[in-house]
Design brief:
By secondary structure, this protein is an alpha/beta fold. It has 11 helices and 9 strands. Strands 6-5-7-8-9 form a 5-stranded parallel β-sheet, with helices on both faces. The chain has a two-stranded antiparallel sheet with strand order 1-2. Strands 3-4 form a two-stranded antiparallel sheet. α5 runs parallel beside α10 and α6 runs parallel beside α10. The longest helix is centred in the middle third of the chain and has 23 residues. The two termini are 23 Å apart. The model has no long low-confidence stretch (mean pLDDT 94).
Length: 279
Amino acid sequence: MNLSKPELWVRFQKYYTEFPTLSLAIDISRMNFPDDFLASMKTPIQKAFIAMAELEKGGIANPDERRMVGHYWLRNPALAPTKTIQKEIEDTVAGIIAFAADIHSGKIHGAKGPFKNLLVIGIGGSALGPQFVSHALGSPTTDKLAVYFFDNTDPDGMDKVLSEIITELGETLCVVISKSGGTKETRNGMLEAQAAYERAGLKFAPHAVAVTGGLSELDKAASTGGWLKRFPMWDWIGGRTSELSAVGLLPAALQGIDITSMLAGAKACDDVTRQIDVS
């Protein structure tokens, strides 16, 4: 796009939009599209809004597996297609808030005292979202727990993380995240952490929490092993859209981030982007 400064200013005024209730703004003026683009796309855009509405009502988005796509419901449970799903979402959020409060107060603690560190073990969507939020919203001055990640199978990387918390494992809470419960990279990270606890003369289970699908390998291991807690991951959430499920909310709440405000902000963004008049 080769425009003069006056032309760029005119274009900026036309394609810059503020959303005061969100304290956000979008500037698409430097994107390379012609002035008649939005008008020419009016019909496809309306079709997209209709398709979005069908998805949010519980339409089958994955015909091969007969699965819904429902990460939208996480920030607005009232949209869920059944009262059962709505209650599961609301109960999970309440459970996360209560669990984090018990950790922060010391009611639930490690073998060596109150938890001061959090080790999140996951890969792909089970790590990237929590990492992003941890870095974006966390602060050394306000964090309740210091957060570390096993997010790949690099032995040196895991050793480096362990070297920073090795003397504090009895004060370190581990959250193992795997939707399927059988992801080998996550399982390897869990086994490395478990071995580190055992070398330190500590039991892993009283320091471990699982986020996974019901009756998965991880769910069964956490149940039979007597882990501290298990939180659900539902099949209607994809890994890359799981941040506002227990996958992301649990680490954020444990770090000390206000997940109620996170969810409210996400809902507010949804409300704004569901306005179907794009003229």
